[in-house]
Amino acid sequence: MLKVTSGQVMDDASRAALASGRAEPALGLLIDSLMEMKGLSDREGEVIAGAALEAEAPVDMASDALDRVFAAIEKGGARRPAPEYSELIKLPRGLVDAILSAEAGSGWSGAGPGVRKLKLNLGGEARAEVIRIDSGVAIPWHTHKGQEVTLCLVGGYSDGRGSYGPGDVVTADPTIRHQPIADDDGPCFVLAITDAPLKFEGVIGVIQKIIGD
User: Are 24 and 123 in contact (CB under 8 A)?
Assistant: First the structure.
């Protein structure tokens, strides 16, 4: 499990890895959401933006620049639509925007008793989904055909390897067999990034083989 604290300072190698990860839209959204949840993005952004501004040559402002600024402020102050689940409204803005876009498209779908998922349409090779698990509900036992990175967004869950809450990142690969179970105190929401389907056991595994997923 990856735990990131708000006091952590990234070195050049970490920044390079994050930049590489952002090349894949799904993983980039996870990285940016994690950094914002941990209060890291603003500080990193200020350093990067400050350096960029210092390197820029001054230019004359357009005659309508002030009008465009006020128009942008007025637009930004307009009331935004809320996600279907109110718990999600306080998540990082980029993630909320992706959720709203997905809800306006295909929307949430059932993924078993007490489980719903929302596929985010981000492009790229990896698949990104927000998964909602009802309080106390267990995801069926499964392994992985590829890599999975999961960011806990709201609530918490455990899977036999550990217990996780908002801001915790968990990775899994084909060597991992587990059964995530939502905590009893409320629903759990996670952002899951995968590069291959999961491999379920039991009845769901049989159905998966039949449909060829």
Answer: no
